[in-house]
Design goal:
homodimer; alpha/beta; Arc Repressor Mutant, subunit A; D-Maltodextrin-Binding Protein, domain 2; 3 domains; 9-stranded mixed β-sheet; 10 helices; DNA-binding
Chain lengths: 308, 308
Amino acid sequence: MYGKKCMLENLRWDLYRTFLAVLEEGSLSAAARSLALTQPTVGRHISELESALGLSLFTRSQTGLLPTDAARALQDDAQAMRGIAAALERTGCGFSAGICGTVRISASEIVGVEVLPPILAGLQAAHPGLNFELVLSNKVQDLLRREVDIAVRMTAPKQEVLLATRVGDIPVALHAHQNYIERHGLPTSLADLESHVLIGYDQETPYLRAARAAYPFWSRANFALRCDSDLAQLALIRAGAGIGICQVALAQKNPHLVPVLSELFTLKLTTWVVMNEGLRNSTRFMTTFKGLVQGLRQYTQTPMNQVK
Amino acid sequence: MYGKKCMLENLRWDLYRTFLAVLEEGSLSAAARSLALTQPTVGRHISELESALGLSLFTRSQTGLLPTDAARALQDDAQAMRGIAAALERTGCGFSAGICGTVRISASEIVGVEVLPPILAGLQAAHPGLNFELVLSNKVQDLLRREVDIAVRMTAPKQEVLLATRVGDIPVALHAHQNYIERHGLPTSLADLESHVLIGYDQETPYLRAARAAYPFWSRANFALRCDSDLAQLALIRAGAGIGICQVALAQKNPHLVPVLSELFTLKLTTWVVMNEGLRNSTRFMTTFKGLVQGLRQYTQTPMNQVK
DNA sequence: CAGATGCTATACAATAATGTATGGCAAAAA
DNA sequence: TTTTTGCCATACATTATTGTATAGCATCTG
């Protein structure tokens, strides 16, 4: 019956930053060090937050502070705020004079490991002030929430506020190691694959859904080796563990990998470079964007990627 | 060649809040009023931000401040920060003693207008400290980013970190106004619909995709009246404009609405109440969550919603 | 054209936030 | 046990942030 004033508090946003640091560091002193503040200041921030929200965030103990349930519930939001603050700073620096600062780029693991490095190295050499953060993941990072600034994607962009450029198609096909073929024979029809060790995904991603639409047998139930990491799948193929999908161009670099049923089973992954529309006027982001587009265009037009 | 220090700036997050206010209010003075600060303070915040980021955010003019491209690019991030800060405060207040504070709920327009009000009124009466913010939209609001705290959805939740409860099925079917039927006749087969005025969506939503899967003719090309607002569709049906989909229970409230082909075309929308897992320990959110579940269960088990 | 309004920029005073120094306490190490 | 270390809490000094008051400059209005 005693209602606390749960109305609009209008707290300083800095309190949230301090709160997050305490949560992550585990003590007022450690948080103070990480924020370049002092321990009394951090303590005051926390008690200010606590009294404003009308709850206790930590249970004091000599060995440190234990977060309460409430504090744990707030952690996600505080982390989100920090992420956005970081994005905001990156954006801002991108607009200042000169091409310098950090750009966060997301791509699939394969593209990030096998394709992007030379492109980014070239960009970095041309613009020494530029730094790159690579987020390699098969789940689509959120450009609108600014988890990343630029994304290399295999799916056509849907949202209008994004600046997207198509850079070409990357052909992928079934491959296996010579060793594996020697032991199991080369399949000559899709039906043959039933008796083979297939390497595939564990959780379905949008791009794999598309693959399954064209080739129904390429579904989770038929895989003997399931792994969500494209890199690990490639490693399994290289190790002769079975038959899996990989980029034609990457397979050709390794003389021991042979294509399997390439006439019957081939996908072309249309590749896009996508950026938030609002970053268009920033030299830093546009330079990176154009560099990625150019580099990936060259890559997709490589003879290795032109195998019809 | 003159590179600004684009490294980690470690700015106070409050500067972003001030910046956003200036952006939205259009002048330092107006922003100061809206933030309960003074104009010199706001001005200092902006120039602090500008010098830290090494760019100019506004072009000064007597009639106000014009945002530069850079400022516009930063707006989205700043707004996102404000949204999260608000969510954080709501979460925090939910943990304080007593059931009070604000809960943001998203639902479709129809559910929000026709179904939720009595439920929320009951909850509010039982807990006078509780306030509700209704976000009515057919696009799925993001629970993870805390745009809303609790969502009423017609699609099964996919993410694991969500606490979801199924509250039953809501039957929907084709309906038309008596007037319309008198003028155009009552169709007796799906083929008959071709010569009728169909009221449907403009942009496809996930739930409508499901409808189309079961009833292929229910696609955008066949609609004479297209509108994304369920409410407007219902209004069109009520006005005798044509035949459209609406909840069976809502149609029965209006004696002039008659079901059309209800044996051939019926959908059951499975309804869920979904909440962020982390809010489970907050009495405020759990109270609301349980109240919504109970109220919607009652609603779906109403005789009107049980027409097989 | 004079007067009002609304805005920004600057100088100075008041206030609020931060840092410094210290004490107390518990757990780990000697 | 004694010592050391690391932590939080408090009192006091310092700094930095904010508010007040004012001037200057445009635009709009009668």
